Amino acid sequence: MRQFAKRHRDQIQVGADWDEQIADNFLQSIPSSEESIISVYYPISSEVDIAPLVEKLWARGQTVCLPVIQGKAQPLLFAEWRRATQMTKGQMGIMEPVERHYVDPDIVVVPLLAFDQQGNRMGYGQGHYDATLADLRARKHVWAVGAAYAEQAVLLALPTEPHDQKLDFVVTEQRVFDFRG
């Protein structure tokens, strides 16, 4: 199922303004304050390009951070990311800040392969975000926000395991899904 979801996402014909629309929908709908620390991700493959969101967050003066991978199924650490931050390839070939000032985010923007109508997310199967969200949620209030294209939504419930962490929101180019119940 994961391979099918990845192939499906890879084949989405992304509209010219979709990533910009996702950024606008995020800023209009996700509860945050000027003090909120927002974790984003450095996109790989056909993930939503969050560069428009990052630029808008920086323009608002928000603290933005990127995940740093520690090991399989271990919680991620989050390093502050600014325009001038030097980057290097980390584990799995994903870009990370060279110098690291670690912070705890209030909002975690999460990449995904698919999501369902209950806020379940299908990721890559490494367990990084599930472990991270469980760790953060045990210590503080954190919003988990999926970034996706509308075509990544599935109508049937995704299979879940006890350790899976639900998303609070999914932001697409068409709308924002609010799963807070």
What topology emerges from the helices and strands here?
Layout: H1 2-10, H2 18-29, E1 37-39, H3 51-59, E2 63-68, E3 77-80, E4 87-89, E5 95-97, E6 107-110, E7 114-115, E8 121-122, H4 128-139, E9 143-147, E10 169-171, E11 176-178
Parallel strand pairs: 1-2, 1-6, 6-9, 9-10
Antiparallel strand pairs: 2-3, 4-5, 7-8, 10-11
Helix pairs in contact: 2-3
Question: What's the total helix number?
Answer: 4
Q: Give the fraction of residues assigned to helices.
A: 10-25%
* CATH classification class: Alpha Beta
Rg, Å, rounded? 15 Å
Average of the residue pLDDT scores: 94
Number of strands: 11
Strand content: 15-25%
What form results from the Cα inertia axes? globular
Order of helices and strands: HHEHEEEEEEEHEEE
End-to-end distance, in Å?
Answer: 27 Å
- Contiguous uncertain segments of 5+ residues: none
- Going by CATH, the homologous superfamily would be NagB/RpiA/CoA transferase-like
> Which architecture does the CATH hierarchy give at level 2?
3-Layer(aba) Sandwich
CATH topology type: Rossmann fold
Helix/strand-derived category reads alpha/beta
* Sequence of strands across the biggest β-sheet: 3-2-1-6-9-10-11
Biggest β-sheet strands, sense, barrel: 7 strands, mixed
Q: How many domain regions? A: 1
